[in-house]
Specification:
The structure holds two protein chains of two kinds.
Chain A (H helix, E strand, L loop, with lengths): L11 H14 L16 H12 L2 H8 L114 H29 L1
Helix pairs in contact in A: 1-2
Chain B lengths: L1 H13 L14 E2 L7 E3 L5 E3 L2 E2 L11 E3 L9 E6 L4 E6 L2 E7 L12 E4 L2 E3 L14 E3 L6 E4 L12 E3 L1 H10 L5 E5 L7
Parallel strand pairs in B: 6-14, 12-13
Antiparallel strand pairs in B: 1-4, 2-3, 5-8, 6-7, 7-8, 9-14, 10-11, 11-12
The chains are: A mainly alpha, B alpha+beta.
Chain lengths: 207, 191
């Protein structure tokens, strides 16, 4: 129960006082501090004297549950918490001037110099150069010539009824054909059966 | 019948509960006459201390000590130490009681300074927070008071000073209107 001398936080003069107090408590001199008559003794007197020579504030500190940090019970984020806290610290490397690290390539890829085998050097023709002149052929179907019959696109011939082009809606019709419906249904059913079958197989496998 | 039930309920509510645990206290530490230490108040006044309670262990939340044996009647004042979360009651320079307190958060801090006790109420219901505040000792005009509350770690008040209910009853009986309450600033605030 004796408080340590270091806990008393007193200066050199105070420590001298403590020594004087110890002397007094051991019966050499008169006591500084009177003790409650209910209990106590030499040991209690020593402890009480050493505590009494200290500041009452230090006694309060000894019995205190401790202080509360500022912002300990604040529910909102403080401005300090808005800053970036998890900064990545890279180890500080100092360049070693004395012994530079030599980086050697582990594998050097050796490749023979590129030689074009089929290159034809300039000025040395290997064989007879075929002329770029194509032989005359028969005229193609789009070649100018006697054109076949081209029907008139629009307009009305003299004396004929007015021809209107058939109007086809872009994007097909709004109602699908029955065959399209059937294909759609078959597709959905096949997807559904495949999924159910897969689930059933997975359930069996997990059992 | 109903009134009787309500009255008994109120009596139960304001009956001070026993202390949570027994604090080991040694003999009172008496300071030698002529070498009384002084405690500074926030307004610059100094008060001498003749003796303090010898609490031999660290007090936890909800703990208090009270011993006014052989302490003469005299001027009573209360020292509230927000930095140490402690309250001490002095009568004629002798410490007669001490308790761990709750105080206000940073958003609603407890004011520091020297306040006289303006009002005493055994049964008080806060109009501001609609809560029971038994053994209320009003300190400021805007409602800061010392009152009984559930003192536990991690709790705080809206600026009041919360003490354990049974200690609040003892403190209520020990002080009178006009007595001084000195609230020392919490840690981190120097002034």
């Amino acid at each position: 129960m004796l408080p340590k001398l270091s806990r008393l936080k007193i200066a050199g003069r105070g420590r001298r006082l403590v020594l004087l107090g110890l002397l007094a408590a051991s019966g050499v001199g008169t006591g500084y501090v009177a003790i409650d008559r209910s209990e106590g003794g030499i040991g209690g007197a020593k402890a009480a004297m050493m505590a009494a020579l200290a500041d009452p504030l230090s006694l309060f500190t000894d019995r205190s549950p401790g202080g509360r940090e500022p912002g300990a019970l604040t529910q909102t984020k403080g401005p300090r918490e808005r800053t970036l806290t998890q900064t990545r610290e890279r180890p500080h490397t100092t360049p070693k001037a004395a012994a530079p690290v030599e980086h050697v390539l582990a594998s050097v890829r050796e490749r023979p110099p590129f030689v074009d085998e089929g290159a034809i050097p300039y000025g040395q023709p290997e064989g007879p150069i075929t002329p770029d002149i194509l032989p005359p052929e028969s005229p193609g179907p789009f070649s100018p010539g006697p054109s076949p019959f081209i029907p008139p696109i629009t307009g009305s011939g003299p004396g004929g009824p007015p021809v209107t082009p058939p109007v086809t809606p872009p994007g097909g019709g709004g109602v699908p054909e029955p065959a399209t419906w059937a294909m759609l249904m078959i597709g959905f059913f096949s997807i559904g059966t495949a999924l159910r079958r897969r689930q059933r197989l997975a359930a069996v496998a997990n059992r | 019948m109903l009134a009787a039930v309500v009255a008994r309920h109120h009596a139960d509510r304001y009956l001070p509960d026993p202390p949570v645990r027994q604090i080991e206290t040694g003999p009172r530490i008496w300071y030698p006459a002529g070498q009384y230490p002084v405690l500074a108040l926030p307004d610059g006044e100094h008060r001498t201390v003749k003796s303090v309670l010898n609490v031999r262990e660290t007090m936890h939340f909800g703990d208090y000590v009270w011993n006014d044996q052989h302490v003469p009647q005299g001027d009573t004042w209360v020292r509230v130490d927000l930095a140490r979360q402690l309250l001490s009651v002095f009568r004629d320079g002798h410490e007669i009681g001490s308790a761990v307190i709750l105080y206000g958060t940073d958003g609603k801090p407890t004011p520091t300074g020297v306040f006289p006790i303006m009002e005493k109420q055994v049964e008080h219901r806060s109009s501001l927070y609609d809560a029971e505040m038994p053994f209320m000792l009003r300190l400021t005009g805007d409602g800061v008071a010392i009152h009984a509350s559930n003192v536990r770690r991690g709790s705080a008040t809206h600026g009041c000073i919360g003490v354990p209910p049974s200690f609040a009853a003892l403190l209520f009986a020990a002080v009178k209107r006009g007595d001084t309450v000195a609230i020392m600033p919490p840690a981190g605030i120097r002034g």
